[in-house]
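Recap from last week: sequence in, structure out.
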Amino acid sequence: MNLPKNILDFTVVIPTYNGANRLPEVLDKLQQQTNTENILGEIIVVDNNSTDNTAELVKKYQNNWPYSFPLRYCFEAKQGAAFARKKGIQEAKSNLIGFLDDDNIPDNNWVISAYNFAQKHPEAGAFGSLIKGEFETELPPNFERIKAFLAIKEGDKETLFNPRLKYLPPSAGLVIKKQAWLESVPENCILSGRVEGSMLTGEDTEALAHIQSKGWQIWYNPEMKITHKIPATRLTREYLIPFMGGIGLSKYVIRMVGVKWYVKPFLLLLYFISDLRKILFHLLRYNISLKTDLVAACEMELYLKSVISPFYLWSKGYLK
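Predicted structure tokens:
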């Protein structure tokens, strides 16, 4: 594969949809990055077909931008996080690309920590950040059990993700190597991200699974710290149940990345049995409280939708 020539050291990509009210805090924090004097970089805001004044906001920042990394703006009309990230990768002028959502606030040393980690681990195709949650409202009881699904990741040790466990870092604060992406990720993935009317998700995990299946390592780097700002609306039953269902519905895609076609039927049966067992044990433990225990209800929705994932995806045309 003929890879594009990289002329910079690091690119920050910020995909956003109607993020005019959230972007300022992210952009302000990026202006405060430390120890980047010897790094050539850029910052790209990818406007994913916003209907607010995102474009005008970025232009205003560009007119008075003091940081050495130039601020760029580009537009992606296709709705979905996967399309916005893909656009950022196409536009990036460096091999190292760090992704920040418009509700991710990086610590002052996030860029330099990411750059240094890449030098230390040349075999890493991607690596994730330590993600602290900042919540607008009180957390439901036992929230710890599902916090990882809301892009919360903590721990003070560098960790190499085991391919057999099918567990990968979230896209918030994720750094990928453009080379790894171009060599590994299909031109058209199955999942594209949540859009209006659909909570189907997992597009970031699908891409990472492809990178990992091609032999690249995936790491967790606790020196890269970000704060994920989570509004009260994302902690309601009305949001969380469909959200967890969307994760469950995407399971089949993630589970089958890199699996030979002749192995898939047997693996599908094993996953089916495993998911049914989880549902049974969950019912036995939480049956009476499922209507009042939000976290238990979220877990049940995840298990139920995981069972029907392959059938749902096929019926909707995702697997054709």
